[in-house]
Design a protein that fits this description.
Blueprint lengths: L5 H5 L15 H4 L13 E2 L2 E2 L10 H12 L18 H6 L16 H6 L16 H12 L55 E3 L5 E14 L5 E17 L5 E8 L3 E8 L5 E8 L5 E4 L5 E5 L4 E6 L5 E6 L5 E6 L5 E6 L4 E5 L5 E5 L6 E6 L5 E6 L3 E6 L4 E7 L5 E6 L5 E5 L4 E4 L5 E4 L7 E6 L5 E6 L4 E5 L6 E3 L7 H94 L5 H51 L1 H45 L1
Antiparallel strand pairs: 1-2, 3-4, 4-5, 5-6, 6-7, 7-8, 9-10, 10-11, 11-12, 13-14, 14-15, 15-16, 17-18, 18-19, 19-20, 21-22, 22-23, 23-24, 25-26, 26-27, 27-28
Length: about 700
C-alpha cells in the first residue's frame, strides 16, 4: 500500500486551484420512486408510487422512447458512435466499444446508468444537461427489474459482472504468519514533529503495520499498537511500502529527490535488509515485487517503468510509454501483469514477463496516485486526482465501477481479502467501501489531507496518515476506538526509560498476581491429591470385594464338587456293603472266599473314611465361602460409603480448577506484558 500524494513526493504542496465535480450520492443510496402517467406502482430503492395497475417496465414501451428523445441521433445501428447502438434491445445488450453497458439488477454497476446520471464521464448526452430525473429513475427501475424487452417478457436470471468476487487466499503462508522477532530499535532520526506520512502498509496475513518516516520505517503491532521495531532507511524517505504476497518481506521504494532512487527489501522476522535494486537519479515514487520475489518494478520522475532482477540487482528492461512522472506501480497478485499510472492521468497495464502493453486505460481526468489489485487478479483499483476510484476488469479491459470518493483527489487505495476497499483523500477523510463499491463507513476527518491508508489482514482495522504526520489506527466497526501510531518514535534512551518505568509500575501487580496464581495452583494440586487418594482407596476396596466374591464362588464350586464325590462314594459303599452282607450270609468257608470278604470290608471302611473327609471339606468350604461373601458385602458397603466424600473432593477439585482457570488469563496478560517489556528493555539497552 502506498501514498498517492503527489505533493509529498515533491516535498512541496501542489496547488489545487481547479474545481472538482461533486456528484451527490443521494441518487445512489435512495432513488425516489417513479411516478409517470399511466404507470402503476414502480419501485427502486425503498419508495413506491401507488397506482391502480402495475405494468412491467420494459424496453419497448418505456426505455426506447427515452433513447429516441435523447440518444438515437448518435447511437443507432446506422451510425453507432463509440460502437454503441440503442435502437434495439439486441444492440443495447451487445454493448459498445467499451463492452457491456448494463447488468441485470445492478444499477450502479451499469455503465449506461453511470453516464446518464452523470456519475461518470463522458456524461451523456454530451454537452447537455442531464435528462429529466424521472427518466433516469425509470432506466434505473428497468435495470433493477431485470431489463425486460416488452410487456410479455419475463425477468431472466441476473447476470453477474466482474464485481462478483470470491477470495482466493493466494499467497497465504503455511503455519503462523511472519511477525518481527529480532528487529532493531535504534531511531536513525529524531525530530520535534513528524513529517507528512508518505506511505503505510499492512501485512496481508499478520497483525503488522509499517509506517514510513524520515530515514526509517517503523513497525507496529496491528492490534495493540505496540512498537515492534525500526528499519533504517538511510537513503531518505520511503515513498511506498508494500508487503510481499506471503507477508515475509517488506518492499520500500524511495530515496532523495534529484539524487537517488531505489527499492529495498527487508526480512520481516529479522529486520535484515536482504536486497536493494535500482540506482535512479531521482526518487522512486513506487516499487513492487512480483509473486515469486524475482522481479522488482520501479517508477518515478524519469517517466520510465524499470524492471529489475532481485537475484543480482540487474535491470531486465525499461518500459517507455509514460509521458509524465510515474506515481504508481503494482504487480497483479498472480505476477502476470503490472499496472502503472502517471501524473498526467496515464494508466497502463503491461505483461510482466515481456513488458509489452496489455491495456491502455484513458478514463481518468487527473493524476493516478495509487493502484491496488484485488486478490483474484481480475480487478484492480486506480485512485486519481479527479476525485474518483475506478475499478477495472482485466478480462474485458473496461471500467466496471466509478466511485466518486474524495473531493480534491484520491491519494491512496487498498483492498482487503473480502474485496472491500479503503481510500484516503485530499478532503481530509478516509473511507471504507464494500466489494461492489458502495460506501460502508466514513471515518472522522483528520486535521489535514490524508495521504496514505491501509487495511489490516483481517479487515478489522484501518490505518491512515495525513500531511501533519498523524497516524490513526481505527477499528472498522468501532471508529471511536482509535490508537495513535508515531512515524517518528522517541529515541531509544527515552523509550528505555519509559519501559523501565512501566516495568516498575507493573512489578507489584505482577508479584501479587504470581503469588495468587501459585496459591490457586497449590490449592488445586492439594485438592487433586486428596481426590485421587480417595478414589484409589475406593478402587482398592472394590477390587478386594470382587476378589472375595470370586473366592466365595470358587469355594462353593469346590464344595459342590465334594458333594458329588460323596454321592458317588455313598453309592459305591452301599454296593460293597451289600456284597459283604451277601457273602457272609452264604457262609463261605473257603480261604479264597474269606479273603475276598476281607478285601471288600477293607474297601468299605476306606470308602467310609474318605466320604467322611469329603463331608468335612464340604462343610468347611461352604463356611469359608459364606465368610468371603460377607467380606465382599462389607467391602462393597465401605466403597459405597466413600462415594459422598469422593463427590465432595471432586467438587473441590472443580472449584479449585475453575478458580485457577478464571484467574489464568489475567495473570497471563501480566506475564506477557512483563515479558514483552523485559524483551524490549534488552533491545533498547543495545540500541542505546
Amino acid at each position: 500500500m502506498k501514498t498517492g500524494a503527489n505533493a509529498l513526493r515533491l516535498m512541496n504542496p501542489v496547488p489545487y486551484d481547479f474545481d472538482v465535480l461533486m456528484i451527490s450520492r443521494s441518487l445512489r443510496s435512495g432513488l425516489a420512486a417513479i411516478a409517470l402517467t399511466g404507470l402503476g406502482t414502480m419501485t427502486y430503492g425503498e419508495e413506491t408510487v401507488p397506482g391502480d395497475a402495475q405494468p412491467k417496465i420494459n424496453f419497448e414501451d418505456h426505455i426506447k422512447p427515452i433513447f429516441r428523445q435523447h440518444c438515437l441521433n448518435c447511437h443507432n445501428q446506422g451510425e453507432a458512435k463509440g460502437g454503441l447502438a440503442l435502437d434495439s434491445m439486441a444492440a443495447l445488450m451487445a454493448g459498445g466499444g467499451s463492452g457491456e453497458i448494463v447488468y441485470d439488477g445492478d444499477v450502479e454497476g451499469s455503465r449506461l446508468w453511470q453516464l446518464i446520471a452523470h456519475e461518470d464521464t463522458p456524461i451523456m448526452p454530451p454537452g447537455q444537461d442531464k435528462i429529466p430525473e424521472e427518466q433516469i429513475k425509470l432506466v434505473a427501475a428497468w435495470i433493477q427489474g431485470g431489463m425486460l424487452e416488452n410487456s410479455g417478457s419475463k425477468a431472466k436470471k441476473k447476470k453477474a459482472n466482474a464485481m462478483a468476487f470470491v477470495s482466493t487466499g493466494s499467497g497465504k503462508p503455511e503455519g503462523p504468519p511472519p511477525m518481527p522477532e529480532v528487529i532493531p530499535q535504534a531511531v536513525p532520526v529524531v525530530t520535534e514533529r513528524a513529517a507528512a506520512i508518505s506511505a503505510i502498509a499492512a501485512s496481508p496475513w499478520a497483525p503488522l503495520v509499517a509506517i514510513a518516516g524520515q530515514r526509517q520505517i517503523v513497525l507496529y503491532h496491528g492490534e495493540s499498537g505496540e512498537l515492534l521495531g525500526i528499519l533504517p532507511f538511510p537513503e531518505g524517505v520511503a515513498q511506498s511500502l508494500r508487503f510481499s504476497r506471503d507477508g515475509s518481506y517488506l518492499i520500500a521504494g524511495g530515496g532523495e529527490h534529484s539524487a537517488l532512487g531505489l527499492a529495498a527489501i527487508f526480512n520481516i522476522k529479522t529486520g535484515e535488509r536482504i536486497a536493494e535494486v535500482g540506482d535512479e537519479y531521482d526518487v522512486a515514487f513506487d516499487a513492487d515485487v512480483n509473486d515469486t520475489m524475482t522481479k522488482v518494478a520501479l517508477g518515478g520522475p524519469q517517466k520510465m517503468l524499470r524492471i529489475y532482477s532481485t537475484a543480482d540487482g540487474e535491470k531486465l528492461f525499461d518500459i517507455k510509454k509514460h509521458t509524465d512522472w510515474i506515481y504508481a506501480v503494482a504487480f497483479s497478485p498472480d505476477g502476470v501483469l503490472i499496472a502503472s499510472g502517471d501524473r498526467s492521468a496515464g494508466l497502463v497495464v503491461w505483461e510482466a514477463e515481456t513488458g509489452q502493453p496489455y491495456l491502455d486505460l484513458t478514463e481518468h481526468k487527473g493524476a493516478i496516485n495509487d493502484i491496488a489489485w484485488r486478490d483474484d487478479s481480475n480487478v484492480f483499483a486506480s485512485a486519481s486526482d479527479d476525485g474518483t476510484i475506478k475499478l477495472w476488469d482485466i478480462v474485458s479491459g473496461k471500467s466496471i465501477k466509478t466511485i466518486t470518493a474524495h473531493s480534491g483527489g484520491v491519494t491512496s487505495v487498498a483492498f482487503d481479502h473480502q474485496g472491500r476497499l479503503v481510500s484516503a483523500g485530499k478532503d481530509k477523510k478516509f473511507k471504507l467501501w464494500d466489494a461492489t463499491g458502495n460506501l460502508v463507513r466514513e471515518f472522522p476527518a483528520m486535521a489535514e489531507q490524508v495521504l496514505a491508508v491501509a487495511i489490516s489482514h483481517d479487515g478489522s482495522r484501518i490505518i491512515a496518515g495525513d500531511w501533519n504526520g498523524e497516524v490513526r489506527m481505527v477499528q472498522a466497526e468501532k471508529p471511536e476506538a482509535t490508537l495513535s501510531l508515531a512515524a517518528n518514535p522517541p529515541p531509544a534512551v527515552d523509550r528505555l526509560k519509559e519501559q523501565l518505568e512501566k516495568l516498575a509500575a507493573i512489578e507489584p501487580d505482577f508479584q501479587k498476581s504470581l503469588a495468587q496464581s501459585n496459591d490457586l495452583a497449590a490449592k488445586l494440586a492439594e485438592a487433586t491429591k486428596q481426590h485421587q487418594s480417595l478414589v484409589a482407596q475406593r478402587d482398592q476396596k472394590n477390587a478386594a470385594a470382587k476378589a472375595a466374591e470370586n473366592a466365595a464362588t470358587d469355594l462353593v464350586a469346590k464344595a459342590d464338587a465334594a458333594a458329588a464325590e460323596i454321592q458317588k462314594l455313598t453309592s459305591s459303599t452301599r454296593d460293597m456293603h451289600d456284597l459283604v452282607v451277601a457273602a457272609r450270609l452264604a457262609n463261605l468257608e473257603s480261604t479264597e472266599a474269606q479273603n475276598l470278604v476281607a478285601e471288600r470290608e477293607t474297601a468299605l471302611a476306606e470308602s467310609l473314611v474318605k466320604a467322611a473327609q469329603l463331608r468335612r471339606d464340604q462343610i468347611a468350604r461352604r463356611a469359608e465361602a459364606l465368610a468371603k461373601r460377607e467380606e465382599s458385602k462389607s467391602l462393597a458397603a465401605e466403597s459405597a460409603a466413600m462415594q459422598d466424600p469422593i463427590s465432595k473432593s471432586e467438587a473441590l477439585v472443580a472449584t479449585a480448577k475453575a478458580a485457577a482457570e478464571t484467574y489464568a488469563p489475567e495473570h497471563a496478560k501480566l506475564v506477557e506484558a512483563r515479558s514483552s517489556i523485559e524483551k524490549l528493555i534488552e533491545q533498547l539497552k543495545v540500541a542505546k
